[in-house]
């Protein structure tokens, strides 16, 4: 019975010794060991043996990147607008010894430093700049906190502003401003569309006028060419045998056709003094034609072409 009790006590004592001697440190973790109350060494990932009842693991630090939530706070902008600002801080412990002995409460200290730095940066900016320069604010706060916390063995990787909350009155004014801006854009777009439509219509009218003038010019040119060709054909016909008789016959036909048209459509009858004698009218027209032809021939004889 006594032997059994002794074995039990010995087993418990052995387990306690092993518990205080053997230390298995996980990956990306560091243990701070103190010997008789004084810093002794830093245990990294792996298997380690300690001196029982003399060495003691006092601090355990994760070497992974971790996030620290920065509570919301009031910050005053350069133009005296109170904003509610909160954020999140990403950091990593680089020196476990400094993180253990350099600061009492590392997370609390980092949080307070982030809030103070953020208030200082917001105070340098106007309300509009705080919304437009988030990236610059994040970079500035990250740099400032990283420099201040370097003695604590930490590395601040980045700071992100989660939310910026203006007062209700400012939000109402911003809504009105955005509504006015949207209305202005609609008015500008409408006026630009109307102006472009007017320009397009003016250009269309101009092009139509130009094309119409060109068409009329082409028509006059074609008509003149046709008349010139007709005159040339008539002149050639007169120079041939029987040409004079043909011209007389054509004039008679045109005379009769003209009076026929007047009788059909006109409301006023035009009766020539010798309308009963068609031969006399044709003879007069032919005599005028022959006189004009003789004058043209005389001019051509007196002014021969340069090439001849």
UniProtKB/TrEMBL annotation:
Its main location: membrane. It comes from uncultured Thiotrichaceae bacterium. This is Stomatin/prohibitin-family membrane protease subunit YbbK. SMART domains: PHB. One of its GO terms (cellular component) is side of membrane. It is a single-pass membrane protein. One of its GO terms (biological process) is proteolysis. Signal peptide: none annotated. GO terms for molecular function: peptidase activity. Residues 20-178 form the Band domain. InterPro entries: Band7/mec-2_domain (IPR050710), Band_7 (IPR001107), Band_7/SPFH_dom_sf (IPR036013), STML2-like_C (IPR032435), Stomatin_HflK_fam (IPR001972). Keywords: Hydrolase, Protease. Belongs to the band 7/mec-2 family. It is found in: Membrane. It holds the Pfam family Band_7.
């Amino acid at each position: 019975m006594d032997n059994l009790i002794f074995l039990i006590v010995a087993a418990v004592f052995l387990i306690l010794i092993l518990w205080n001697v053997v230390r298995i440190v996980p990956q990306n973790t560091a243990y701070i060991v103190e010997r008789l109350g004084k810093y002794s060494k830093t245990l990294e990932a792996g298997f380690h043996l300690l001196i029982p009842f003399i060495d003691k693991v006092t601090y355990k630090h994760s070497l992974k990147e971790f996030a620290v939530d920065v509570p919301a706070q009031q910050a005053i902008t350069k133009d005296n607008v109170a904003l509610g600002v909160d954020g999140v801080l990403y950091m990593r412990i680089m020196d476990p010894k400094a993180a253990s002995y350099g600061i009492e409460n590392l997370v609390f200290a980092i949080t307070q430093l982030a809030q103070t730095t953020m208030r200082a940066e917001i105070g340098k900016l106007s309300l509009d700049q705080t919304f437009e320069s988030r990236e610059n604010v994040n970079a500035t706060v990250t740099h400032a906190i990283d420099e201040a916390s370097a003695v604590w063995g930490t590395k601040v990787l980045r700071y992100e502003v989660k939310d910026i909350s203006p007062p209700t009155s400012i939000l109402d004014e911003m809504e009105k401003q955005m509504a006015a801006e949207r209305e202005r854009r609609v008015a500008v777009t409408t006026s630009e569309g109307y102006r472009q439509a007017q320009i397009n219509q003016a250009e269309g009218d101009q092009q139509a006028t130009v094309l119409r003038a060109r068409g009329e010019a082409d028509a006059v040119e074609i008509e003149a060419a046709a008349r010139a060709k007709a005159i040339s054909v008539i002149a050639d016909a007169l120079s041939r045998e029987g040409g004079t008789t043909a011209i007389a016959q054509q004039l008679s036909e045109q005379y009769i056709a003209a009076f026929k048209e007047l009788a059909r459509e006109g409301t006023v009858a035009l009766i020539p003094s010798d309308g009963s004698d068609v031969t006399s009218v044709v003879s007069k027209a032919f005599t005028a034609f022959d006189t004009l032809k003789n004058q043209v021939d005389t001019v051509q004889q007196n002014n021969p072409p340069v090439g001849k």
